[in-house]
Amino acid sequence: MATQSPETAAPQRRSKITPEREQEFYRAVLDLLQEGGYEALTIEAVAARTRSSRSTLYRQWNTKPQLVVAALRSCNRRFALEGIDTGSLVGDLRAVAEAAGEACGGDTALVYALGHAALQNPDLLQALRAALIEHEVKAIQAMVRRGVERGEVAADNPAVEFVPTQLIGAMRVRPLLESKIADREYLTRFLEASVFPALGLAP
């Protein structure tokens, strides 16, 4: 009877590793991604660089996409939007620009580098969306919804639907278009020139 590979086997019980050891694994993954890209990254290479076994890595993360996304999340923890609530939509979106600007040196370049690989790998694409994009979308949608409930923006304003796409697109696409990160100053100008006018908000 054929045996299952580590990639397809049922999830195994996770062993206990220290936070320091976990960060060592994540640093190795991020370094290898920057050195050779997603396709060149292998569990074997991570194991060799961290002097660990493949089985240890598979027990913790099951698949390469899960390990990569966990590593990206580890360098992106400070980019937390869920707690932002300034009392106004303008204030909330400015806070998003500030948080994103502070984190723009973290995962942005890596996510951009993974973009092509994700389009070719449904598992990686799903993992990236679940871990790094969906929470951003939901947080921004909640801010806009509060703005509508407070009467700051008309509920039937057609621009309401596109605020997450605009902001996240600006964050992720600027490196491609201009070879520059979407820092706080850039995102603030983007809000004032594009997002606020579309929503009927005075900056």
From TrEMBL:
<dbReference type="Pfam" id="PF00440">
    <property type="entry name" value="TetR_N"/>
</dbReference>
<feature type="DNA-binding region" description="H-T-H motif">
    <location>
        <begin position="42"/>
        <end position="61"/>
    </location>
</feature>
<feature type="domain" description="HTH tetR-type">
    <location>
        <begin position="19"/>
        <end position="79"/>
    </location>
</feature>
<keyword id="KW-0238">DNA-binding</keyword>
<keyword id="KW-0805">Transcription regulation</keyword>
<dbReference type="Pfam" id="PF16859">
    <property type="entry name" value="TetR_C_11"/>
</dbReference>
<protein>
    <submittedName>
        <fullName>AcrR family transcriptional regulator</fullName>
    </submittedName>
</protein>
<dbReference type="InterPro" id="IPR050109">
    <property type="entry name" value="HTH-type_TetR-like_transc_reg"/>
</dbReference>
<dbReference type="InterPro" id="IPR009057">
    <property type="entry name" value="Homeodomain-like_sf"/>
</dbReference>
<dbReference type="InterPro" id="IPR036271">
    <property type="entry name" value="Tet_transcr_reg_TetR-rel_C_sf"/>
</dbReference>
<dbReference type="InterPro" id="IPR001647">
    <property type="entry name" value="HTH_TetR"/>
</dbReference>
<keyword id="KW-0804">Transcription</keyword>
<dbReference type="InterPro" id="IPR011075">
    <property type="entry name" value="TetR_C"/>
</dbReference>
